Amino acid sequence: MAKTFTVQNYKGIREITLHPTGSLVVVAGANGAGKSSFIDAIAELVDPRGVRLTPKPIRDGEAEARAEFVDDDLQVRIVRTWKKDDAGKLEVFALDGAKYSKPAEIVAELTGGLIFDPVAFLNLDEKRQRDALLEKVDLPFDIDEVAREKAGAEQRRLEAGRDVRRLQGALASMPNPLDAPAEEVSGAAVLAEIEAAQDLQRHRERVMSELDDAAEDVASLTARIAKLTEELEEASAQVKTLTEARDALPAPVDIEPLREKLAAVDETNAAVRARREYAKVADECAAAETAQAAANRELEAIEKRKREGLAAATFPVDGLSVDENGVTFDGVPFTQVNSAMRRRVAFAIATAGDPKLRLVIIKDGDLLDADSLAAIRELADERGYTVLVERDRDESRQIGFTIEDGALA
Prior knowledge:
Elements: E1 3-8, E2 15-18, E3 24-28, H1 35-45, E4 65-71, E5 76-82, E6 89-94, H2 103-111, H3 118-122, H4 126-134, H5 143-173, H6 187-223, H7 229-248, H8 256-263, H9 265-312, E7 320-322, E8 327-329, E9 332-333, H10 339-350, E10 359-362, H11 370-383, E11 386-390, H12 396-399, E12 401-404, E13 407-408
């Protein structure tokens, strides 16, 4: 795997060309020597999007800066040239001299779209770790949209649950007279019945009084029958008429039950209103319970869709997944996994897929101890990757390239 890395006049670098052997390429040197500048230049070189803008990429006093990577196995040369403070000009050539017309697409194809720094990944917060991982995974859904849907359903369930509890409490404290009539009774109607009965009674009393008077007249006239025959006939006729009127009268009405009915009107109507209010609150409670059940079903559907989508996705490492909070490994939040396993998983993510240009760039290599560095070398050998790492701790200057004042020592 013959590879060459070259950086000229980029930030603190004058000119450095590396012809590494083996999978691990350590760039060492004191602070300010230029090792970060070298790593930054290579990182920007293989960024197809050209968005990693450095405020002043060109070394003071120089007109332009350049970074170059040559891979003899891939027969490709990648060049980025800076002539002003921007993302620079990206060019890709075949080693026979042919120039590719769409360099960004070629670099994206060669690298798989992104050079992943496993140590930088470990230093991200949980949300940004999740986002970085998702750039390497093709999910059949938008996990943030699913999270928003879930939050909405949970809010609706919470609101419906509050309504259910409030309305159940209201029902528990309310009377529910099941034997009350469906409609309120009119006190005026009952009073009208009483007045009609009283009018009829007075009419009856008048008729009975007149009948008594007529009977007295008959008795008086009978004694005077000889001289009062004409009066008798008239009185008899009147008796007959009044008797017929009496016989046509309805039976006497007992108004006491009506008085009792009137007295019970307020109590009955209060029971009717209580029953009606209870039914209304019961209907509201049923509607709230229906809304709560619907929200629960919606949450179950969202969770099922998310589970199925995550199960269908292919992650770089078995056991790796994501949730709305971040990355998980074997169902445990990634931040709770032991540090050795986190580094191994992070490197596995960095080397996921099958890119043609198998390159990993690690900027904060001083965070790795000797054992971690050895594990990365082993994994790089196993997977056929070249790891370019900025590191100056332990034996870095003995095993790597040392930079002094912008050039190789």
